[in-house]
Amino acid sequence: MKNSSQFTQEKNEEILENRGSLRLFFSPAPFLLTIFLFLIIVSFLVAILFRRVQVAFMHNPGLNTLIISVMLIGILLVISNLLSLGKESRWFNNFLSGNVRYADRFFLVSKFLSPTRLLVGIYPKKPLPLVLVRNILDFVSSRLDETRDTWRYLVGLLVFLGLLGTFWGLIDTITSINSVIQSLDVGGHDSADILSSLKQGLSAPLSGMGSAFSSSLLGLSGSLILGFLDLQAGRAQGRFYTELENTLSQLSDVSFEKNTLNTEMSSIGFSEEMRRIIELLSQVAPDAVGQQRSATAMSALAEGVQALVKNMRKEQQMLRNWVEVQRDESRSMCRMIERLIEQRHGKDNNGIRGE
């Protein structure tokens, strides 16, 4: 049987042989291409509807500028994040191939793979500990979730700004309508003058309605665009995490730990009889657990049957009481009927005697 040192040497040789073939097969190019195609389609639609979009934008230029700025910031953040994933993927592939130039500089600016600096002194000298691999994956997962939280906040912010513009415009509309109604003077004026003043007064409420609907339209459109980009970025991050997990799992020492455990057990001096006893105990343990579960189930079944019997006894007692009550009522009704019959016969006999 191979001891731990022999297995470690074989594991190291295997990793050294396969080091050049290990790669992080991730590229943000497909996701960036999808995003750029989507943005081109949106830009084409905006160019077609430019006049209407311009009119809607001018109803409330301040708030609409803020909405568009937030949307552009979100788009730039998504694209920057995807480019960062591609850059870190390329560096990790260089690290796996043995090219670790500018490693310290990369660790300082890395957003997701900064914990991999711990691998510099380990890989490829020996397999990676599982605890280290799990810590790296947890760190990467938390950082990816943080970036997605930022995008989701921006999506919600766009919806909020659209609703804010809607209520802002509605408030202006209600205030303007109130002013128009109060300014109308129908006494002593011609109908043409009244209609002219009403026409001039309604321009402000209509402007408020335009401000409300334009801000709502831009806010919802921006949230839709940024939501689609968030979807593509989420897919890219999921792909990046999966590829990183697969690559690190190939460098981990799962089989190494199993073999080390076996060699340590053999070095302690376990006899063949002791191993047989352990095997028998491992076979008996499931049976004992099964018997215990069966006993628990039978006990629960007995309690359920006992409760059912109690309920049946209660129902039988209630049925008996109901039968007794019905029997007493039927007896009283029979007595009442007999009395009525006797009274009827008595009246008939008295009538016959009188005749």
TrEMBL record:
UniProt key word Membrane: yes
The keyword Membrane appears for this protein: yes
Residues passing through the membrane, by range: 31-50, 62-86, 151-171, 206-229
Protein keywords: Membrane, Transmembrane, Transmembrane helix
Superkingdom of origin organism: Bacteria
Name of the protein: MotA/TolQ/ExbB proton channel family protein
Upper lineage: Bacteria, Pseudomonadati, Pseudomonadota, Alphaproteobacteria, Hyphomicrobiales
